[in-house]
Amino acid sequence: MTASEGVLDSPTSWVASHIHRYLETDGADGHEWRPGVFTLLLTTRGRHSGKLRRTALIYGRDGENYLVVASQGGAPQHPAWYLNLLAEPQVDVQVGAERFTARARTATAEEKPRMWATMAKIWPAYDEYQTKTDREIPVVVLERV
């Protein structure tokens, strides 16, 4: 997968604006979204359309791996980007100016409590989001390939 021209950015206007600034500045504007809260750009392949889709997500680290949370603010359904990576786990990632290909996977039941704690420390609202939905909110591990 090569994230290049023709990638469709998240349709939410503030997210699209964030992604545009991130791309234009190689993350100088956008990598640190809020004080101490950093974002990466994740590009997945649409499970129905086959088109590349890009979104900005808060991330954490677990050793060499990156972590993101498929919370969608506690919505009852998983975000489209998560459903896309279930269908095609090879994704493109941009962290600041660095770009790489990764394999995405859902954290195992054994890994998730530790990884969730890492992410909730970065963005405490994740705990609130989980109380708003009956679905189990996944933590996604991004492993470089």
UniProtKB/TrEMBL annotation:
GO molecular function: coenzyme F420 binding; oxidoreductase activity
PANTHER family associated with the record: F420H(2)-DEPENDENT QUINONE REDUCTASE RV1261C
Listed Gene3D superfamilies: Electron Transport, Fmn-binding Protein, Chain A
The reaction(s) this protein catalyses: oxidized coenzyme F420-(gamma-L-Glu)(n) + a quinol + H(+) = reduced coenzyme F420-(gamma-L-Glu)(n) + a quinone
Pfam families referenced in this protein's UniProt entry, alphabetically: F420H2_quin_red
Protein name (Swiss-Prot/TrEMBL): Deazaflavin-dependent oxidoreductase, nitroreductase family
GO CC terms in record: plasma membrane
Family: Belongs to the F420H(2)-dependent quinone reductase family.
Superkingdom: Bacteria
